[in-house]
Amino acid sequence: MGRPVDTAAVALRRRALAARIGRGVALIPAAHERDVERDYVQDNDFRQTNTFFYLTELETQDAWLLIVAGGEAATTVLFLPPRTPSQERWTGLRLGPDTTAARLSGIGRVLPTDSLDRMLAALFRASGPIYAPLDVTTRDEPRLKELVFSGRDVRNLRPLVDSMRLVKDGDEIARMRKAIDISAAGHVAAMQAARPGVWEYELEAALEAAFRRNGADRLGYPSIVGSGPNSTTLHYDVNRRQTRDGDLVVVDAGAEWGQYTADVTRTFPVNGKFTPRQKAIYDLVLATQQTAFDSTRPGATVAQLNRIAREYLRAHSGTLCGAQSCDGYFIHGLGHWLGMDVHDVGDYATPLKPGMVLTLEPGIYLPAESLGVRIEDDVLVTATGAEWLSAKAPKTTVEIERLMSRPSRP
To answer: Is 214 in the same domain as 96?
Structure first.
């Protein structure tokens, strides 16, 4: 059935959405199970669509959520397919249109899906615009296709919901803390499994085993374990190289828990000891990240933080990267929004507000030296500044070397 629903939190989200709509109908479909005969099911064969989950926290498939907005009051109806006991021998128990679903969801009115079209026909005669999430997750929904081509006033719901998702409420932050703590445990496990000669996929296995052992639902994204020359490739995720003594390893990986993901990157020496050259580059990246964090507060923007980070790199590079400033080897942006998606929704021009979560991930990549360093942490904007959410993953060279020198290390 999935994890418990914070019924109060999702009810507040639905009321806020209805207020933004003003007058009209919002129709939101749930996800469908993937087809194991057609799709490449690598992890779970079902993951809820983010919009439906945000407004229900239900991990049930083939459902529909209807919100009728109008003035002070809003009506919410959940539509669920009827239960089929013979099918449930294959799939396990499913929610059906009954009092159990109403109790678990906090939605008082739960009806079978075959009554949806009749209710819509009645509503469309009296309501305003129709709002639906018009995106890649719903493009094959026949009911939404029919609405779009019917000539009715159909509007995309996604911009409204996406703007709401940018500021996380208490329930969302709690889920993210859990996902991030699980991810930190995985990064610790990868460091402890490191030794010269280990294969990248062995580090990946140690990392992801710790994710699962600590309760992760799935990966937030494919794990990146890049050693030596692969440490300089941003989204390398083949993970098939055998490490060598003296390599740095960039591990960019995050667990998902309760539909929310982490995004954490750590860089460490496979032999447990940074060379002076590696340490110098690493410490510059770390100081750059700290400088950006120190400026993270309500009112700042992601563009301003990116500029601050690059100015720090230029001012403190010296000759570390040769005649060119190390800023020239920082080949991506400083960070991004984080939430249900690893690159979460939201306008980057929006000034920071308490409750927003973003990553700070400066890096320096020197392909000629097979030397890449990226440090990425998840950060919560608070009323007075910011909070490191991923601080449980060792980050300084001293912390990393201390961890990797413990006798328990393989």
So the answer is: no
